[in-house]
TrEMBL record:
Residues 264-331 form the ChlI/MoxR AAA lid domain. One of its GO terms (molecular function) is ATP hydrolysis activity. This is ATPase AAA. Residues 1-10 have a biased composition (Polar residues). Keywords: ATP-binding, Nucleotide-binding. The keyword Ribonucleoprotein does not apply. It comes from Iodidimonas nitroreducens. The keyword ATP-binding applies. Residues 62-195 form the ATPase AAA-3 domain. The lineage of its organism: Bacteria, Pseudomonadati, Pseudomonadota, Alphaproteobacteria, Iodidimonadales. Residues 1-23 are annotated as: Disordered. PANTHER family: MAGNESIUM-CHELATASE SUBUNIT CHLD, MOXR FAMILY PROTEIN. Belongs to the MoxR family. CDD domains: AAA.
Length: 336
């Protein structure tokens, strides 16, 4: 453990007052547990994925969900939309998809007096929860249409800016095995995702539960727990949680250690400051999910891989030796 991290103090390095003392935080923790419980009744064997997705949403960010077909990625997004009470739109990304199919377009109309004018027709991006299904199947031009939306929460069409609804989140899915006819996401867009969440196969008991609950004559519909306004309140609460000096130092050590240098010749390029911001927000959100009002260094370690794995690249010799981003990040996190 680094010396300056181990000498942690109780005084937070960054503090904002909690609304209504700790009562608001306790109510938030109760609501979050209800959300997790409701999601868990419809998504089996993916507790880690459920928690990482919830951490992303409470942190106010976007998530890239990667997994083979049939692992309930689409169902996960739809369930979150219902449980959180968000307006939801889905876009199936294909090679012929155009930016206007996502952002919207202007149409020429003529009124009763014969005057012509343009009217803007909003696209599916004008929703609180946008599901970008198989995002890597669209062309780079179409993928870039999401950049401004994800970062600035607004889009520009024909030189006019249009504000997106609040809250606004993108949950994109990606299939890791069918790479023919796909376009890898550019680094600039990958950096906009707070997390890259990997969905693995369920274990035997979880798969048994899936069989019993999804092949019968009755199906359960998720129920709404909160709404968009309540979600934004929870997001503000996350940002207000105090962060200790040891956590700040751990985040800096991790992010700076994942960059190219003499100590890490296997790293070609590494995470920038946005990764540190994502870790700070993620640690706060994870603490609240875990029923705590103060994040710890363990939160940094736990979130290191999903937050950093898409923000760095290894050299060809390192990849040829079988080294992966996840392994490098896990080794760095173990030293905190």
């Amino acid at each position: 453990m680094n010396e300056h991290v181990s000498q942690a103090t109780n005084a937070p390095a960054h503090r904002s007052p909690l609304p209504d003392s700790g009562r608001d935080a306790e109510a938030a923790i109760h609501a979050i547990q209800q959300i997790k419980s409701e999601i868990g009744q419809h998504i089996f064997g993916q507790d880690r994925v459920i928690e990482e997705t919830l951490t992303t949403l409470l942190g106010g960010g976007h998530a890239l969900i990667v997994g083979v077909p049939g692992l309930a990625k689409t169902l996960l997004v739809e369930t979150y939309g219902t449980v959180l009470g968000l307006s939801e739109k889905r876009v199936q990304f294909t090679p012929d998809l155009l930016p206007a199919d996502i952002l919207g377009s202007e149409v020429l109309e003529e009124d009763e007096s014969g005057k012509r004018h343009f009217r803007f027709l909003p696209g599916p991006v004008f929703s609180q929860l946008l599901m970008a299904d198989e995002i890597n199947r669209a062309s780079p031009r179409t993928q870039s249409a999401l950049l401004q939306a994800m970062q600035e929460k607004q889009v520009s069409v024909a030189g006019v800016r249009h504000q997106l609804p609040e809250p606004f989140h993108v949950l994109a899915t990606q299939n890791p095995i069918e790479q023919e006819g796909t376009y890898p996401l550019p680094e600039a867009q990958l950096d906009r995702f707070l997390m890259q969440i990997h969905v693995d196969y369920p274990d035997r008991e979880a798969e048994r539960a899936i069989l019993l609950h999804t092949t019968g004559t009755q199906s359960q519909t998720p129920k709404q727990i909160i709404d968009g306004q309540r979600l934004m309140h929870l997001q503000r609460l996350v940002r207000s949680l105090p962060v200790g000096e040891s956590v700040v130092n751990a985040i800096l050590d991790l992010v700076r250690g994942a960059r190219p240098g003499a100590d890490h010749p296997e790293i070609t390029w590494g995470p920038g400051p946005r990764a540190a911001q994502a870790l700070m927000l993620g640690c706060r959100a994870r603490a609240l999910i875990d029923g705590r009002q103060v994040p710890s260094v363990d939160d940094v370690k736990d979130l290191a891989v999903p937050i950093l794995r898409h923000r760095m690249a290894l050299s060809f010799p390192a990849r040829a030796d079988g080294l992966t981003n996840d392994q490098v990040i896990a080794d760095l996190a173990a030293k905190l």
